[in-house]
Amino acid sequence: MSNLIKTATEQLEGIITSALERAMESGDLPQAQLPAFVVEIPADLSHGDFATNAAMVSAKAFRRAPRQIAQALVDHLDLQNTYFDRVEIAGPGFINFFLNRSWFTNALCAVLTEQEQYGRSDYGQHQKVMVEFVSANPTGPMHMGNARGGAIGDCLASVLDAVGYDVTREFYVNDAGNQIQKFGKSLSVRYLQIHLGEDAVQLPEECYQGEDIKVHAQNYTKEYGDKLVHVSEEEREQALIDYALPKNIEGLRRDLEKYRIQYDVWFRESTLHESGAVMAVVDLLKERDMAYEKDGTIWYKATAMGAEKDEVLVRSNGIPTYFTADIAYHLNKFVTRGFDRVIDVWGADHHGHVARLKGALDAAGVDSSKLDIVLMQMVRLMKDGKPTRMSKRTGKAITLTDLLEEIPIDAARFFFNMREPNSTLDFDLDLAVEQSSQNPVYYVQYAHARICSILKNFAAEQIHPRGCSREELDLLTQPEEIELIRTLATYPQALLNAARSYDPAHLTIYARELATAFHKFYNACRCRVENESLMQARLNLCLAVRITLRNVLSLMKIQAPEVM
């Protein structure tokens, strides 16, 4: 697929290199090893469409002033059959290049030709990538951190798919370990309180205090009565876990699907224990002389991998730690299932676990550089300009369900991706529901709806967009038209940047830039003009913007409305 920014950049790199070589051959510059230089888009486009620091970074190699080098380079430039038609030397030696008309026409044609494929690429070369995100504790509902992680992880997976990776979305179900034992204990106490009275059985502070635990106990009682009152504590807890946990997991699935997230795999931690994969980690680390036993406890030699202290793998009671299960899970990802790269989206409070896990993977013989962790900062809800809890459960964490009852799903998915993951996000609840240009998702969606309205009005007069010749598209020369086409052309690069940085915020930023450029065009350039060729060229430009807006919004699973 087309990427006119990348094509022009690579073409310009070749033009500059060839010019410098010709300058050396002619004697205008001394023979020297060409240093690496940068071709970039200037912040101020009045200075040029592209610029290079080639003369600046070559000063030492050529032992000349940068402006002298720049002049020699310009004297030997060959811009024939390229996307560039003129060049300027600026300041101490920067060289600015200006695109010719063919680039803009080709950029517009690329969108109109590639349609829903526009922006996509084979950059990832079909490498197998897993994105594991949310993985909320199944003992309770999802909170605000999960809401942000869901939007980031799902959008990141879409981005990676769009640039050519073979992507798997995975939810890791923590259905084993201490939290499940605590879940069972909490359910057991609430169940007994129903049948024996709250005074007869106290709920320990370390148990889960939420209303959802009471509801499970009440529902079990409605279905099965007091059949668990007189059984052993172990049997009662297990029966209640077997009853409530599947309902919680199904609730997570249902809430996430409402949030437009569908996973390819729901991977259960319990399967690692049942298959022996967790204890196999211990055996593997022992074989590699990276584990030892002391006083009945088995330890991983974390200090041998640069950590400050060794880590417990198996407690003296024979129960493996969560850390051991996590190592087993990641070995399963890389070794058993053969993923080329794994991306985990975690809360920032897990930052200390990153080095521990990577070190353990290296110790187990897996290249930890194939594991990337996206750390996600906290969300602060704002209302009336002040932080708010917005909770319907006084004193409890805000859930994903609470949030989606208050604001549109489109707004949630857009807002959570407006900042890079590793930055704190202030989520403005008032703005998220506001139907004005101040609301960024509304602003972007309105641009799409406005284009649909333009096309509908023309269709009512039996005027429909038709294919335009290059000569007709060349008529789009107004500054607002040029800016809009240039913005359209940057979409494939914005996608690549989002994929490389694991930051979907590149898409929300791009969507707003494209909407802004379109609104400027709409206000400055009438589509209904006497010149039929110009009218059709502008209608084709509107079509290209609609295509690109749909593409970027669909990647984020945000609606592109035709009427607002």
Report what the structure shows.
- This protein is an alpha/beta fold.
- Helices cover 51% and strands 13% of the residues.
- It has 22 helices and 15 strands.
- The strands form four sheets. It has a five-stranded parallel beta sheet with strand order 7-6-5-11-12, with helices on both faces.
- A hairpin with a 2-residue loop joins strand 13 and strand 14 (386-387).
- The longest helix is centred in the middle third of the chain and has 26 residues, at 233-258.
- The chain is globular.
- The two termini are 32 Å apart.
- 41% of the residues are buried.
SSE map:
Blueprint: H1 4-26, E1 39-40, E2 50-52, H2 54-57, H3 59-62, H4 66-75, E3 84-90, E4 94-99, H5 101-114, E5 128-132, H6 144-162, E6 166-173, H7 178-196, H8 211-224, H9 233-258, E7 265-268, H10 269-275, H11 277-287, E8 291-294, E9 297-300, E10 311-314, H12 322-336, E11 341-347, H13 351-363, E12 371-376, E13 379-383, E14 386-387, H14 400-406, H15 409-415, E15 425-428, H16 429-433, H17 440-460, H18 470-473, H19 479-489, H20 491-501, H21 505-524, H22 532-555
Parallel strand pairs: 5-6, 5-11, 6-7, 11-12, 13-15
Antiparallel strand pairs: 1-2, 2-4, 3-4, 8-9, 9-10, 13-14
Helix pairs in contact: 1-4, 5-19, 6-20, 7-8, 7-9, 11-12, 17-21, 17-22, 19-21, 19-22, 20-21, 21-22
